[in-house]
Write a structure and sequence with these properties.
The complex is a heterodimer of chains A (483) and B (249). Chain A has eleven helices and 23 strands. Chain A is an alpha/beta fold and 483 residues long. Chain A has one domain. The longest helix of chain B has 18 residues. The chains are: A alpha/beta (483), B alpha/beta (249).
Chain lengths: 483, 249
């Protein structure tokens, strides 16, 4: 290691302060997966028959599939029979208010800094939160306020009871259960997640947020999120996630589907901070996630912003299918890999409609022995007259043992399409650090400032509260307060 | 202000400085001249505390403190400023942000209150006028896409803002055309003062037409072979370095 790397190393080590375990009694299914497990999960949820059939169909498809091997990721095979597919904290059956939520759960979210007590929230910064603990949603805030605006925001298990037709209409319409190995698994065993419906012409009066927490040992989390923005509506949605520090790897295989109708806008922001494993690469979450949005009508817009700092493995490609004319898809990403973390992440922009536009800004930061890959596809179909894409993929390396890789794919079937791709790789240089220190900054502040400057284009896309969180996560202070 | 005694230093095991002695008092301007590879930039780097430069002997006292014992940022906060020969680019970080962070780190170190955005803007605009720098440069990423002259002017702007006790200018004239040289030199001259010492490291005499030094030292082979007044620089210009190196040999 050079001197700079030696000096950088301690700066990059951070304590995972969300790594605690909540001691709470749970109902957990024994490990293993077969049709009975699928039936049991559906049964616990008292789901309609069509839902069970859908799950069983997905399960049968999954058993015939094999895990994808094309990603630049290395991990031992996952034993799907060693995982428990359902775990719920023991609590009363029906909750009318937060007073009935187990205080230990409230405490957990308080410790994590997640506001699930409406009363305690500051006026002005209202965010409605759905808190998912292992396999179930334990609290959803501001439901009434949202209902008054016609917005539905509830656990998807509840939506299946209350609004089965809506769920049935859209579930699997963007990510079919046969889409890929992990999506099929999720479709079979997903236990909870959030459902959002924004009616025509409504601008959702507050940010919506789901906070995912894995607590139980040997448990996988398979949540399913479905967001539907009807014509000319708008919603901004935030997603956060953490898990305790454990020596075993845990599986997280989520599916998120977004549907934006004519003139609608969905902004989906993620700060992913699953436990990344220790500095020797032990433990950590395997994060295999399928996220996709469909711009179904003219002028619809879907924007993904992600800050990926956690997980031992991240496999994730939030995508947009630009079906309508004049639709817009955006993907802004910061992915940090340190120690032995591996990330293979990027996006797919599929241009179907005329004059559809997409923007991809990806910032990969690799440190330690981290491996960071950008993988992206820009696909322009024959009818997508005048489609445009701009992609920019930048990699920042710290130290000599990490890696950055870029895999941009393009399939262009319409000659009028304009595609631009830019890529850079740079290293935090001793020169940069010395320059900043000569101006009076500590080395720590200098690293923060340089990393922050590198991520600026993505951070500015995050909602304010999240931007602060993201910057704290990278161990950096707010850049650009001036200028 | 600055007292260097018998300083030796090496880079990657190669001895570059072989016993430097130098006394710089408050209010003085010293010029350090010498041919390429004589150790001029090494001296500047050692004084600022750059990694990879190993001090193998001697001592440096700066305002009563053991300079060599201080981290680079502490030297900066104690008022030692280095204008870089090759100013570094930092993408995504605005000039304004770096300058504010630096100034406030220094103010905090001195026990002064940190400046807020409004006060800082007012101050930086005054300073930018001093080096004839357009305000748009403040909002651009540090040195990114700056011309050679703009980068050097930016260094002088930083010096004007941070108001150091000791300013070390490392080859600030390299790569400048006549007009840029004049602007930079004028900026430096405005910063001359009774409490401030300036050390100008340069290969050429031409900068010294604009920044007239009180003392000139000639560095060759890692040690000073001649010291004198400003006329020494003119003599060098006329006769070249070979003449003086022969004399010293």
């Amino acid at each position: 290691m050079s001197q700079t790397e030696r000096e950088l190393a301690p700066l990059l080590q951070r304590d995972y302060k969300e790594g605690f375990v909540t001691e709470i009694e749970s109902d957990t299914l024994p490990p293993g997966l077969d049709e009975d497990v699928v039936r049991t999960i559906s049964g616990i949820k008292e789901e309609p028959g069509w839902m069970l059939d859908w799950r069983l169909d997905a399960f049968r498809r999954w058993t015939a599939m094999t895990p994808p091997r094309w990603a630049h990721l290395h991990h031992p095979p996952i034993d799907y029979q060693a995982i428990s597919y359902y775990s719920a904290p023991k609590q009363k059956e029906l909750l009318d208010s937060l007073d009935e939520v187990d205080p230990k759960l409230l405490e957990t979210y308080e410790k994590l800094g997640i506001p699930i007590d409406e009363q305690k929230m500051l006026a002005g910064v209202k965010v409605a939160v759905d808190a998912v603990f292992d396999s179930v949603s334990v609290a959803t805030t501001f439901k009434q306020t949202l209902m008054d605006a016609g917005v539905i925001f509830c656990p998807i298990s509840e939506a299946l009871q209350e609004f089965p037709d809506l769920v049935r209409q859209y579930l699997g319409s963007v990510v079919p259960s046969s889409d890929n190995y992990y999506a099929a698994l999720n479709s079979a065993v997903f236990s909870d997640g959030s459902f959002v419906y924004i009616p025509k012409g409504v601008r959702c009066p507050m940010e919506l947020s789901t906070y995912f927490r894995i607590n139980e040992m040997n448990t996988g989390q398979f949540e399913r999120t479905l967001i539907v923005a009807d014509e000319d509506s708008y919603v901004s949605y935030l997603e956060g996630c953490t898990a305790p520090m454990r020596d075993e790897n845990q599986l997280h295989a989520a599916v998120v589907e977004l549907v934006a109708m004519k003139g609608a806008g969905i902004k989906y922001s993620t700060v992913q901070n699953w436990y990344p494993g220790d500095e020797h690469g032990k433990g950590g979450i395997y994060n295999f996630v399928t996220k996709r949005g469909a711009c179904r009508g003219q002028g619809a817009k879907i924007s993904w912003t992600q800050v990926e700092t956690g997980s031992a493995i991240t496999w994730k490609y939030p995508s947009v299918v630009l079906e309508g004319d004049d639709t817009i898809g955006e993907f802004y990403s910061v992915a940090l890999t340190n120690n032995y973390q591996q990330a293979d992440t990027g996006t797919k922009m599929v241009h179907v409609g005329k004059n559809s536009r997409s923007t991809i800004i990806s910032k990969g930061i690799s440190a330690g022995k981290g491996q960071n890959s950008y993988r992206g596809l820009v696909k322009v179909l024959k009818g997508a007259e005048g489609a445009r894409n701009y992609s920019q993929c930048d990699s920042l390396l710290m130290g000599a043992e990490c890696g950055a890789h870029t895999f941009p794919y393009m399939e262009v079937k319409n000659p009028s399409a304009q595609i631009e791709h830019e890529a850079t790789t740079s290293r935090i240089g001793e020169d940069q650090l010395f320059y900043c220190r000569q101006r009076g900054l500590s080395e720590e502040d200098a690293v923060s400032m340089i990393v922050n400057g590198f991520c600026k284009e993505v951070f500015k896309e995050l909602p304010m509260e999240f931007a602060v969180e993201a910057q704290k996560l990278l161990g950096i202070s707010l850049e650009g307060a001036v200028g | 202000m600055l007292s260097i005694k018998n300083l030796s230093a090496s880079v990657e095991g190669k001895t570059i400085l072989r016993g430097i002695d130098l006394e710089v008092g408050a209010g003085e301007v010293h010029a350090i001249m010498g041919p390429n590879g004589s150790g001029k930039s090494t001296l500047a780097s050692v004084l600022a505390g750059r990694d990879g430069y190993e001090v193998t002997g001697g001592a440096v006292t700066y305002r009563g403190m053991d300079l060599l014992d201080m981290e680079p940022e502490i030297r900066a906060r104690e008022g030692l400023f280095l204008a870089f020969q090759y100013p570094v680019e930092i993408p995504g970080v605005t000039n304004l942000y770096l300058l504010k962070a630096g100034l406030n780190a220094i103010r905090k170190h001195r026990g002064e209150e940190e400046l807020d955005a409004m006060d800082f803007l007012k101050l930086i605009k005054e300073k930018a006028a001093l080096v004839d720098m357009k305000q748009e440069f403040l909002y651009r990423a540090v040195n990114e896409g700056f011309s050679g002259g703009e980068k050097k002017r930016n260094e002088i702007l930083q010096m004007a803002l941070l108001e150091p006790h000791l300013g070390i200018l490392d080859e600030t004239d390299s790569g400048l055309d006549i007009d840029a040289l004049r602007i930079v030199a004028e900026g430096v001259n405005k910063l001359r003062g009774a409490d401030r010492a300036i050390v100008v490291v340069t290969h050429y005499q031409r900068l010294l037409n604009h920044i007239v030094p009180d003392h000139v030292h000639v560095l060759a082979g890692g040690r000073f072979i001649r010291s004198g007044g400003k006329e020494l620089a003119l003599e060098l210009e006329e006769k070249g370095y070979g003449w003086i190196e022969e004399q010293a040999a």
